[in-house]
Amino acid sequence: MVEADQGSSNLTANLKLLCSYHTSTSEVCRRLQINRQQFMKYLAGTAFPSRHNLRRICDFFGVDEYEILMPHEQFREIVRLRPHGQEDSLVIPPMFRNLLGQAQRQKGQLTKYLGYYYKYFYSFSSPGSILRSLVCVYTRGDYTLYKTVERLKPPGAQTTPYIFKYSGLLVHVGDRLHMIDYEAVAGHEISQTILYPSYRNRVITLIGLMIGVSGTEAHQPTAARVALEYVGRTINLRRALEGCRLYSENSTEISYQVTEYLKGSSSPPVHLLRAETA
After folding, report:
1. Phi, psi of 130 (to 5 degrees)
2. Looking at residues 23-42, what average pLDDT do you find?
3. Is the dihedral of CA 75, 80, 85, 88 positive or negative?
4. Pairing state between β 221-232 and 115-122
5. Structural domains present in the chain
6. Distance (Å, rounded) from C-alpha 113 to C-alpha 201?
7. Considering all CA atoms of the chain, what is the largest pairwise distance in Å, rounded to the nearest integer?
8. How many CB atoms lie within 10 A of CB 257?
9. Per-residue model confidence as pLDDT tens digits over 165-208
10. Distance from C-alpha of 152 to C-alpha of 250, rounded to nearest angstrom
11. Rounded to whole angstroms, how far apart are CA atoms 17 and 14?
């Protein structure tokens, strides 16, 4: 009985969070085709959905049944890396139809890339430091999408980190993986990453180049080598996000292979390529 009560409490808090991403509770009920009076009982914690209704609710919001019953703080971390129902209603400009049509047809061949990755590159705004961020690659409808969370926090710093969140599309073009995304917090950046695909059934590490703009006031167009290290389909999100921050290039928490790739072979090493103003 205690576990059931705890699950009901978690469901109430998590359901309220998911509904907050929509215009109104009435809209959610209408799209779910669930009686509003009954749904309000779920939100109030006075009733628990049947297995059938719980499955419908989870499918609608794009989460799993075990996730929606997780402790609220842990669930909040999950939805930061998950899409919300409103993304389905985006209006796509005609010029992107060919690219998106190709992306739709690739859903099956990109399945092996689904899951979580640590992303490493030399920070655009903190020279000499390597930034580790967390990437989640997932499917929504016919598309393979991803979300990235960056936490700009120096090692040992007690200050609140600067948070950047990116949402994007993964597509395979010209025997290369292209990741195109938009920074969703400040809305000041579009970035692109081009990676060599994995020719094995099991993805371990993906390498390539990324281009974006620095987080400083100059917003310089900048390019850097990037490595994505596969973590798994299911991970401890809290622990993974805590490990997302700035590292020194000599840190033992980053594999030697990744660090050597990011440094490159030039002498002296050139970590970043910046576009200077005229």
Report:
1. -100, 130
2. 91
3. negative
4. antiparallel
5. 2-80 (1.10.260.40), 94-274 (2.40.128)
6. 10
7. 70
8. 12
9. 899 999 998 899 999 998 877 677 889 999 999 988 889 999 99
10. 18
11. 5
Tokens of 142: 């016919």
Q: Are 177 and 272 in contact (CB under 8 A)?
A: no
Number of residues that make up the chain: 278
For the packed helices 25-32 and 51-61, what is the interaxial angle rounded to 10 degrees?
110
Mean pLDDT of 105-122: 89
Query: Measuring CA to CA, how many Å separate 48 from each of 34, 60, 75, 121?
Result: 13, 17, 18, 45
CA distances from 180 to 147, 193, 195 (A): 11, 7, 11
What 8-state DSSP symbol labels residue 154?
Answer: -
Cα–Cα distances (Å) from 46 to 41, 253, 268, 277, in that order, read 5, 47, 66, 62
pTM comes to 0.66
Q: How far apart are CA 124 and CA 86, in angstroms?
A: 31
Confidence of residue 4 (pLDDT cuts 50, 70, 90): very low
Is 133 within 8 Å of 245 (Cβ atoms)?
no
CB 248 within 8 A of CB 130: yes
Give the 3-state secondary structure of residue 93.
Answer: coil
- The pLDDT tens digits of the residues spanning 199-233 come to 888 899 999 999 998 766 677 899 999 999 999 99
Is pLDDT at 107 greater than 80 in this prediction?
no
129-140 and 246-248: which strand pairing?
Answer: antiparallel
